[in-house]
Design goal:
Elements: E1 2-11, E2 14-24, E3 29-33, H1 40-48, E4 55-60, E5 63-64, E6 75-78, H2 90-98, H3 106-115, H4 131-143, E7 149-153, H5 161-176, E8 180-184, H6 188-194, E9 197-202, E10 205-211, H7 213-219
Parallel strand pairs: 3-8, 3-9, 6-7, 7-8
Antiparallel strand pairs: 1-2, 1-4, 4-5, 9-10
Helix pairs in contact: 2-3, 3-4
């Protein structure tokens, strides 16, 4: 569970998050919508511990970010454009990242790559990947350590229609495993298909919160 209470962030005179509060539960998908600069990505960076708030708190399973723990260990994320080493294959890129924590095997890395529709045995360099293939690899990187929480910033940008549908199924599968997903997206389709609840942001504030048809149908 993620509990955010009166979260504020200022850079000088500019307020980028303004009294943001929300409680997010496992087994649900939450959408963050709003124009560029509305605070969506900044909120995700705070949850990851990349940025310290000016005031307010974020707790994950009761542990406060920046006080009890510096960064959560059970989170997979795509923040802005996934960055990979262009001269290496998909597998080698994820292998390098997996070595940081040493939690998973080569087979688990390959399984994550297959899950998103890529070939883990391919020697094709990531530098030759299409935007959609890079995005798939970014999703694989977020999923590979089997995190409890997924923070996904525009995760399906660059994918064609078939790719979007495939990744919808992948992400719904993560929800069905009891994971908590937060998705920041400009895509109305992504929000409608995936999200149980939606928070609307403008100028760092939550200006709307609604239960979607996805959640209503699930309750029937």
């Amino acid at each position: 569970m993620i509990q955010i209470e009166n979260l504020c962030k200022k850079f000088g005179e500019a307020t980028v998050l303004d009294s943001v509060s929300m409680t997010l539960e496992p087994g649900r998908v939450y959408g963050l919508v709003g124009r560029n600069g509305s605070g969506k990505t900044m909120l995700l960076k705070h949850i990851l511990g990349f940025v310290k708030p000016t005031s307010g708190t974020i707790r994950i399973d009761g542990k406060e970010i920046g006080k009890d723990i510096d960064m959560p260990q059970n989170v997979g994320a795509i923040i802005e454009n996934p960055g990979f080493l262009p001269e290496y294959s998909a597998f080698k890129n994820l292998k390098f990242l997996a070595m940081i924590r040493g939690k998973i095997s080569d087979q688990e890395i390959k399984d994550a790559i297959r899950l998103v529709g890529l070939d883990p045995e391919s020697r094709k360099h990531v530098g030759k990947f299409s935007l959609g293939m890079r995005q798939r690899l970014g999703i694989a990187q977020a999923l590979m350590e089997n995190p409890d929480i997924l923070l996904l910033d525009e995760p399906l940008s660059g994918l064609d229609n078939d790719g979007v549908e495939e990744m919808h199924h992948v992400l719904i599968g993560q929800k069905e495993q009891g994971k908590l997903l937060i998705i920041a997206s400009h895509s109305k389709e992504d929000i409608e298909v995936l999200c149980d609840e939606v928070f609307r942001f403008d100028k760092g504030k939550i200006i709307g919160h609604e239960v979607t048809e996805c959640e209503k149908q699930g309750a029937l």
